[in-house]
Amino acid sequence: MNILITGGSGLIGQHLISSLIQTKNHITVLTRDSVKSARKLPIGVNLIESLSQKNVDNHEVIINLAGEPIAEKRWSKTQKQKICHSRWHITTQLVELIKNANTPPKVFISGSAIGMYGRQDHKKIDENFTDFHQEFTHDVCNMWEKTALEATSATTRVAVIRTGIVLDPNGGALAKMLPPFKLGIGGKIASGQQFMSWIHIEDMVAAILHIMNTQTLVGAINITSEHAVSNQEFSKTLARTLNRPSVFTTPSFMLKVLFGEMTDLLLFGQNVIPQKLVNTGFTFKYPTLDAALNNLIKQQ
After folding, report:
1. Which of 72, 91, 137, 201 has the fewest CB atoms within 10 Å distance of its CB?
2. What CATH number should be reported for the domain holding residue 123?
């Protein structure tokens, strides 16, 4: 199968490609730096640095994971523009090429995030939830999804994946949390009551493959564990897994001084349910946080 992937050198992309290449798929990756990406990706991956019509024609699957990391830097006006442009521009390009393709892809899977819902309380949220909280993360995801869904046609099935916190010890949120927790100085953030909707990296990849191969999965799809936890519970579980205490609290005012508006990602959350995955028979390898963290910490 011919598969085109953007954002292939990112955390999710690297794991996804490693899985896909094992089953003899032909993978093409759009990258800004082919030399750097070649060091990260398996031998045999075709690397391109620009898109053209021929890159889209004759690809059965296109997976769009490109985007400036949302939590790497303080949200200055310039950084917000980079976050938006890096998602919206490439998605617009792909949609136009798909529309003009002689042989369009059978499925277009495009990134999004549970930030689409904005900050929420403890209520459980599935894909039918539409009472979005208007804020930056919602605005980013809303335009991102609307653009991707324009590729929907009789020949192309479109799925936008609302991803939660992807757990991997070598990247993302968990990699940032591990050093202080290993030193015994980790703990909850502010009240600790905000929900964290998480997923193990292996289940993340398996969910994308499930979507790729399940014809009934269209539109917005949540990719999270069924069992979101509060920040306090997450902190206690991580500390217990590392055999460390969890007694410290990071106050909200300190975070606001350090990160400004981006602090909202840490202080507010969502209790997200992956209802569409469950309804189509997807089975989580790591359904609970205990199981996920025990597996991931063993990799250290």
Report:
1. 72
2. 3.40.50.720
